[in-house]
Amino acid sequence: MERRRFGNSDLWVSTIGLGCYGMSGAYGPADDTESIATIRRALDLGVNLLDTSASYGNGHNHRLIGEAIRDRRHDVVIHSKSGSPRDGASDAVRGGGDPHYLRQTCEQSLKNLGIETLDVFCMSRVDPNVPVEESVGGMAELVQEGKTRFISLSECSATSLRRGSDVHPLVSLQMEYSLFSRDAEEQGQIDACNELGLTMMAYGALGRGMLSAEPPKLEELAREDIRARLPRFQGANVEKNLRLRQALEAIAHRKDATIAQLAIAWPMAQGSGMGTFILPIPGAKSRRHLEENLRAAEIVLSADDLAEIDRIAPPGAASGTRYPLGQMHRVNV
Fold first, then answer.
1. What is the pLDDT of residues 26-35, one digit of tens each?
2. Are 78 and 37 in contact (CB under 8 A)?
3. Could you report the per-residue pLDDT of 176-198, keeping only the tens digit for each?
4. 46: domain range?
5. Which one of the listed residues 56, 101, 177, 203 is annotated catalytic?
6. Residues 110, 6: Cα–Cα separation, whole Å
7. CATH code of the domain containing 216
8. Does pTM top 0.85 for this prediction?
9. Catalytic site residue 56?
10. Using an 8 Å Cβ cutoff, are 266 and 309 in contact?
């Protein structure tokens, strides 16, 4: 698989990464044995970037990855997010920006992964109670101490991205970005990445399953599946989003591709005409889905294809917010 430079770092990563979120129960049960086999298969196929977080499965995701990459540490770039405090405190707006919290999380992540240094340590959310400069300054100390090679931010505003970059070089921004979630275009994050020379990591490229081979049905979701609480999977929103999916499927069929492959190829094509490298990190819990996803790298979307997709799914086309309204204040901070 083709590799490109990751932001302004000396890391070279595959043009499609592997998101490991679903391997720790976020989208219903997962099989550890198959998850480990999926990670190893990804490495065999040339995928070298794994996206994870300290909060995924409360450390389970890191321990799983640690097992999967044993004896293959040099084959993989690990991008790990900090997650947010889960100590039961009533302050629901916290994003975990306190330097002490970030240090603790980084050090625990290294233990769970069984490695000495993270490749990229990413703050999951900008904390409205902590200046982003203070948070990035704390992360910069971790770079100086060799606990992580590079640092990045996730789900922040373009302003916060620039302010953070003034304190210490950042290499990427991670945001939900897909045919169903185009906030990064409207709110200026893609422009900021282009200006600062950062890679934009696009999570949720499959619309959390709405653009996968078989979209989930609300009544069949496991209780622990986070999609049961997401507005886009509720009531009339589902019907509208499925109609949007159906219109996009016509383009996929014409390209001899699945809807999932089209959904992954689209953000890659969005970054092809600018300095910003947009890196989709679709999740997969099985080797079969992984291999289907990776065939998206073979799809070429013409200017006419992209224009047609824009007509069908312009910014704001998806019905329902991407998080419950009570959580939307935690993004674009």
1. 888 899 999 9
2. no
3. 999 999 999 999 999 999 999 99
4. 3-330
5. 56
6. 21
7. 3.20.20.100
8. yes
9. yes
10. yes
